[in-house]
Amino acid sequence: MHYPEIDARLFLTDRNTHLLDEHIDVAVRVGSLPDSALVAVNVGWVRLVTCASPGYLTDRGTPATPEELTGHACIAFEGLTSTRAWNFPAGKLENPVQIRPRLVTNTAESAVDTAAFGLGVTRVLSYQAAAALSDGKLKLVLEAFEPPPLPISLVHAGQLPVPLKLRAFFDFARPRLQARLSAL
Fold it and tell me: What is the CATH number of the domain that holds 15?
């Protein structure tokens, strides 16, 4: 054990937390960060991917454009995107495509599992689908229409000087997160 004197509390949520109010020293945030007093350390990038099982694509066809999703069963992960429309880039604008959710879920894991079972097309972050994609349970679709990658950052409340336990956590976590994200 590298740091036997440090105890941790792991709090998993898809919502942005208020670090000071919730007594959280550090958080992992996905996406662009609003201007704030928080200090962010970038650890990598993640893609917003659209995927389905090979069996589903064989049975229903592979969508060639985002608009073709209107004819597909979709599995919407409500913690990430709208459950009624998925936005795809169209130049500098966004192209909202209305979807027909066969299932709306609040976890990426259930969205990925349901898609892997062949029940529809889902849209999640690349790290959330990485194992199913690697195992061949899911295939990427509409890659040419993906939005730009999203940054992943470790954020903290910006105390100066940075407390030693926080610096130790960053020194421990940052290279591991960077290695894991670069392998995706």
Answer: 3.40.190.10
